[in-house]
Write a structure and sequence with these properties.
single chain, about 110 residues, Leucine-rich Repeat Variant
């Protein structure tokens, strides 16, 4: 844990590689001190997406939850009832019949 201040300081390094390495070092620590957790929460918004992803993974490793809940995706699939299936089948049959008529006409 004595290295924590040094690792947290790397999260402010101009090099994205150093910031990424710091996130990975914090991720594998057995316990995450409060100062490191706060620094990782800030790093989740890093302009480099790899650093932001590494910070998110590190936080998840120690908290077991994502940093913010994923938005719920509404179910927008309309229910398919017998009438919808019948209309779809009728449309398919009309398309096939039209194709057959066109093919037969081109064979003459």
């Amino acid at each position: 844990m004595g290295d924590t201040p040094r690792i947290v300081a790397k999260l402010s390094n101009p090099s994205a590689n150093k910031r990424f390495d710091a996130c990975e070092e914090l991720r594998v620590m057995p316990a995450l001190p409060e100062e490191a957790r706060l620094a990782l929460q800030a790093a989740v918004n890093d302009p480099d997406h790899l650093v932001a992803d590494a910070a998110t993974r590190a936080l998840r490793m120690h908290t077991g939850t994502p940093t913010s809940p994923a938005p719920a995706v509404p179910d927008v699939t309309p229910p398919i009832g017998p009438s919808v299936l019948a209309l779809a089948l009728a449309g398919l049959l009309i398309t096939l019949a039209s194709a057959c008529i066109l093919c037969a006409g081109s064979l003459r």
